[in-house]
Amino acid sequence: xxxxxxxxxxxxxxxxxxxxxxxxxxxxxxxxxxxxxxxxxxxxxxxxxxxxxxxxxxxxxxxxxxxxxxxxxxxxxxxxxxxxxxxxxxxxxxxxxxxxxxxxxxxxxxxxxxxxxxxxxxxxxxxxxxxxxxxxxxxxxxxxxxxxxxxxxxxxxxxxxxxxxxxxxxxxxxxxxxxxxxxxxxxxxxxxxxxxxxxxxxxxxxxxxxxxxxxxxxxxxxxxxxxxxxxxxxxxxxxxxxxxxxxxxxxxxxxxxxxxxxxxxxxxxxxxxxxxxxxxxxxxxxxxxxxxxxxxxxxxxxxxxxxxxxxxxxxxxxxxxxxxxxxxxxxxxxxxxxxxxxxxxxxxxxxxxxxxxxxxxxxxxxxxxxxxxxxxxxxxxxxxxxx
Length: 387
Prior knowledge:
By secondary structure, the chain is an alpha+beta fold. The chain contains 9 helices and 21 strands.
């Protein structure tokens, strides 16, 4: 089993009367990249600063290799940090920026030079030693910041939204580079972001942070396929929600009936104790729905009926908006761009799905159908297309 290198236990932090973190606990394993994912203002950076030692928690403990380090200052933790604004020294050139931590640790001059040259090669900036910081692009500054953090051989590296100041194309390029470097160096890391696509590409595991609480920790697949709560289901990717009523509870299964009298037997949510007669919401991801002409003979699988409203073309995929009962909308994602021609606007269709694709959550305050898309394109729409 992978060795636990860092453990955070019941960490809480308040600023004045505002509780920013509330009894946060998690573990970081050897050579693992743990991504802290959540909306802006939810406590992600504060959590990173507590781990780094820049802030002190009100309560809770931090352990590194089973030794408590909560009381230690940053320079005694052997962690390194890449800040959101990079925090480079504009009065120093690239070489001196990267060498700063080595010199502070009293490395010999020859060793400093060797390590800085190796770090520049690692981040693809060979020959940049004498360049000034103000003359670098955003991507080059980000690479210098990463090299400065990695050159001191930290046992844990902390990255606070390191790609947020880059343009979209460069962000995609740099997240791939960061992942490659972290894996090549076998360094444990905590990566903070609000960007879901970024999180899913870089992470070994993801921790969802909302209002100072960790709601779920798991692999990208677990977070997406088995969201623990309604917020995670809505925040990560896209989701269609259909209101239903619980008709029976049979062990790990429940029988439900939807708004338009569709009877289903689906897996019970282990985090939600539902009872007969309760209203619930059934979640289905857009790519789990299969489109069929309404006139075709239906097979054994359950389906909803609707009418195509419009199509959104995204290059390698198409998302169809389907009008369904009770003035609701369901979105279906497909990898075949020609689907727009097969199912033009106004076409009556069946939305076929497997009962195993349905997840159960508490009901919303209102009734009917709902589609949720929060903040980013669905990572899996690009990687698991179906036509």
